[in-house]
Automatic annotation (TrEMBL):
It comes from Nocardioides scoriae. Gene3D superfamilies: 3.40.50.2300. Residues 144-209 form the HTH luxR-type domain. It comes from the Bacteria. Keywords: DNA-binding, Phosphoprotein, Transcription, Transcription regulation. Pfam families: GerE, Response_reg. Residues 3-118 form the Response regulatory domain. This is DNA-binding response regulator, NarL/FixJ family, contains REC and HTH domains.
Length: 215
């Protein structure tokens, strides 16, 4: 059972999301919050597996709440917002969010997204991914350096494929290994680089020049 908290300052939306998720046999909503401060307190008290977080909330916005939660807890965060803006995308990911969806997604896609992020996957819509890569291109990236030293050649290869948005199954097919082997490599990459999930690995790879936008 995946334990979830929902945070949104609009009561009807918050209640709707909570009811939708709690109706799933594998999901349990353990609390809701109407603002960022309340969300942080709720997360500290309930230690959920995942927090579904709106960006624009009073007292403490969703991005700052995400930053606090991911720094203190193992809780994964899926950011859900009406506003499809570049700054939100980048800042949410930098704050530790593992996924970013717009509120106009279908109920089925939202439930699927919660399950994917809770299971350790990253979740970015295609438009979000394109803008994120463009953002790295505009900012420039540092050249590869000794930060890669802990990784084996195969782990570097897997990290590069992750950064291109490829799934474990796709990487396994390219490398002619079992998906379980790729999963093991991914776990080692995260452990050695001190990263919490795949989306942080993607950010790390671009920032350190392991892959280049469009490459």
């Amino acid at each position: 059972m995946t334990r979830v908290v929902v945070a949104d300052d609009q009561p009807v939306i918050c209640a709707g999301f909570a009811a939708l998720l709690d109706a799933q046999p594998d999901l349990e909503v353990v609390g809701t919050a109407a603002d960022g401060r309340e969300l942080v307190e709720l997360a500290r008290r309930t230690t959920p597996d995942l927090a579904l977080v709106d960006v624009r909330m009073p007292h403490l916005d969703g991005i700052e709440a995400t930053r606090v939660i991911t720094a203190e807890l193992a809780t994964r965060v899926l950011v859900l917002t009406t506003f499809d803006l570049d700054s939100y995308v980048y800042e949410a990911i930098r704050a530790g969010a593992s996924g970013f969806l717009l509120k106009d997604v279908t109920a089925e896609r939202l439930v699927e997204g919660v399950r994917l992020v809770a299971d350790g996957s990253m979740l970015l819509g295609p438009a979000v991914t394109r803008r994120l890569v463009d953002d790295f291109a505009a900012r420039g990236a540092a050249p590869p350096d000794a930060d890669l030293a802990p990784l084996s050649p195969r782990e570097r290869e897997v990290l590069g494929e992750l950064a291109r948005g490829r799934s474990n199954a796709e990487i396994a097919a390219d490398l002619v290994v079992a998906p379980e082997t790729v999963k093991s490599h991914v776990a080692e990459v995260l452990r050695k680089l001190g990263l919490r999930d795949r989306i942080q690995a993607v950010v790390w790879a671009y920032e350190h020049g392991l892959v280049r936008p469009g490459g």
